[in-house]
């Protein structure tokens, strides 16, 4: 883990560039609201609200008052850990996720999807589900006795852990996405899922 005690972002030249870009983006956003007929005070309030919401999402991807993340959230393992690993139970599930990501990378998997109460606002999540989109040469890896491919196949065959699933192609992947994005709500509401960046 990196030491942040001596980190001063304002000394980095990228900070000044980012400041300028954010200021320009904010001005353009406020101008858009003015063109839409808002008065100057409301335009500023709307712009600030947008920026504040953007910053909040960097720390917590689930909007206030909601249970689910946005439709699809692509992020790194570090972000998954920061957003969803904030209790002992969540840390336990996170260990499982870390292992799946390591296996997915080792076999050259194309994509990894996370679902379950782990990626919701639930205080005490029951489970975490995952779908790994297998690489095209997964069968070849098995034929060549690749130990990571063998371990992944063993996990999938024995259903240990039972929450890990495989997608053999993109069509299969989107079928899993469709399945896991359903909720049990009578409105037929959809929920968001997490895709972990593997590269």
Task: Explain the layout of strands and helices.
Layout (H helix, E strand, L loop, with lengths): L12 H23 L4 H20 L12 E4 L1 H8 L3 H20 L3 E5 L13 E5 L4 H6 L3 H12 L5 E4 L2 H11 L12 E4 L3
3D architecture notes:
It is a single chain. The protein has 199 residues and is of the alpha/beta class. The protein folds into 2 domains: 9-59; 72-196. 50% of the residues lie in helices and 11% in strands. The longest helix has 23 residues, at 13-35. The two termini are 20 Å apart. The mean pLDDT is 85.
Structural features:
199 residues, alpha/beta, 2 domains, 5-stranded mixed β-sheet, 5 strands, 11% strand, globular
Helix content: 40-55%
DSSP helix count? Answer: 7
Characterize the largest beta sheet: strand count, sense, and whether it forms a barrel. Answer: 5 strands, mixed
Number of domains: 2
Oligomeric category: single chain
Question: Average pLDDT, to the nearest integer?
Answer: 85
Radius of gyration: 21 Å
Distance between the termini: 20 Å
């Amino acid at each position: 883990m990196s030491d942040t005690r001596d980190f001063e972002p304002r000394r980095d030249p990228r900070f000044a560039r980012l400041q300028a870009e954010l200021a320009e983006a904010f001005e353009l956003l406020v101008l858009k609201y003015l063109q839409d007929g808002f008065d100057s005070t409301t335009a500023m309030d709307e712009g600030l609200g947008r920026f504040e919401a953007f910053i909040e999402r960097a720390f917590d991807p689930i909007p206030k008052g909601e249970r689910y993340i946005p439709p699809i959230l692509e992020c790194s393992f570090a972000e998954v850990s920061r957003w969803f690993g904030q209790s002992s139970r969540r840390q336990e599930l996170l260990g499982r996720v870390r292992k799946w990501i390591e296996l997915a990378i080792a076999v050259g998997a194309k994509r990894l999807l996370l679902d379950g109460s782990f990626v919701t606002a639930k205080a005490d999540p029951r489970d975490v589900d995952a779908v790994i989109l297998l690489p095209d040469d997964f069968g070849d890896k098995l034929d060549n006795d690749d130990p990571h491919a063998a371990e992944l196949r063993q996990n999938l065959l024995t259903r240990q852990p039972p929450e890990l699933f495989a997608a053999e192609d993109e069509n299969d992947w989107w079928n899993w996405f469709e399945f896991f994005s359903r909720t049990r709500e009578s409105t037929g509401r959809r929920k968001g899922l997490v895709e972990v960046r593997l590269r």
